[in-house]
Amino acid sequence: MASLTKRIDGNVLVVELARAEQGNALNLELQQQLAQTWQALDEADNLRVAVLHGAPDLFSIGHDVQELAGNASLSAVPALEMFPLHIGKPVIAAIEGPCYGLGLELALSCDLRVAGEGARFGFADPHLYVPYRIATVLLPRMTFMGTSLDLILSGRILSAVGMNEARLLSQVTSKGGAAAAAMDMARDLAQRFASPLTFRKRNIWSLSGMPLPAAMNLARMPRG
Amino acid sequence: MAKVSYTRQDRTARVHISGAQPVFDVQMRRELNQALLQYKADSDAWMAVISSDGPDFAGGPGEPATGSLREQHERYALWAGGYVEAWKPTLCAIQGQCRGEGLALALSCDLRVADETASFSTDFSGGAGEPDVLAAWLLNLVGAAKTFEMLWLNRTYNVHEAQRMGLVNRLATRGAYKPLPPEDGRFPMAVMGATIAVPQGDAITAALKFAEELLLYAPVTRNFQKEIALRSIGVPFHYAQTLELGPNPYASEDRIEGTRAFVENRRPVWHNR
Amino acid sequence: MAQAPTETAAAPILIKERDDGIFIARMNRPERMNAMGGGLREALEDVWFEFRDDATLKVMIITGVGDRAFCAGADLRENDRKARELGAQSAQALLDAQRAAGIAPSFTANNFHLYKPVIAAINGWCLAGGCEMAMGCDIRIIERHAKMGLPEVKRGMGAKNTTHKLYFLTYLASGLEIVWTGDPLSAERAVELGMANEVVATGQSLARAMEIARDICRRPMAYMRYHKERVFQSVGVPLAQALAMEQRFPPHESEDYRRGLQASLAAKLPGWPNP
Question: What is the pTM of this model?
Answer without folding.
Answer: 0.94
